[in-house]
Design a protein that fits this description.
This protein is an alpha+beta fold. It is 29% helix and 24% strand.
């Protein structure tokens, strides 16, 4: 998985962000945006999950275990959907993680134009409920989930969750 983020370089000390020139607090040390690209193949699912988990740890994001587990399940579901449903038209996918002072957002982007919808639970089916699960996790955590078209004609599915979420 190729990492287009800040990487392992030096980070500011823990605690409140540095003060700006005008005296207002700057961003917290864990805030930022990171983007990973990967081929749309099955092996990318666990790689994306591990990359997001490692990123959250490395940056010191103050996320509860429940939040991290929810985010990792969301990443797994979204990357799986991109691999299963978009790989033919989109041999590469991107995973983006954005962390703010009070929220974390994960997004998966591919170049397939189809915009999926959450399916209703059909207990006779063995699949087809991934996006429904993602929306349920987001709703339970007080977060939001959406699908948007990209300027290149593809789509990005994103979920933003508050950092204060705990079951």
């Amino acid at each position: 998985m190729e990492d287009h983020g800040r990487g392992d370089g030096p980070r500011p000390e823990r605690g409140a962000g540095a003060l700006r020139q005008d005296g207002t607090p700057g961003p917290a040390p864990y805030e930022g945006v990171w983007r990973f690209t990967a081929p749309a193949v099955d092996a990318s699912v666990p790689q994306a999950r591990h990359a997001v988990r490692d990123l959250l740890r490395r940056q010191g994001v103050p996320a509860s275990d429940d939040l991290v587990h929810g985010l990792l399940l969301i990443v797994s579901e979204l990357v799986t959907n991109a691999v299963r449903h978009a790989a033919l038209l989109s041999p590469m996918l991107a995973v983006e993680v954005a962390v703010g002072a009070e929220w974390v957002r994960v997004a998966v982007e591919d170049n397939h134009p189809y915009r999926p919808t959450a399916l209703e639970a059909d207990h006779a089916r063995t699949g087809g409920r991934g996006l429904l699960l993602v929306r349920e996790i987001a709703a339970e955590a007080g977060g939001v989930c959406d699908v948007e078209h990209t300027t290149s004609g593809g789509k990005v599915i994103w979920v933003a969750l508050p950092l204060g979420y705990a079951r």
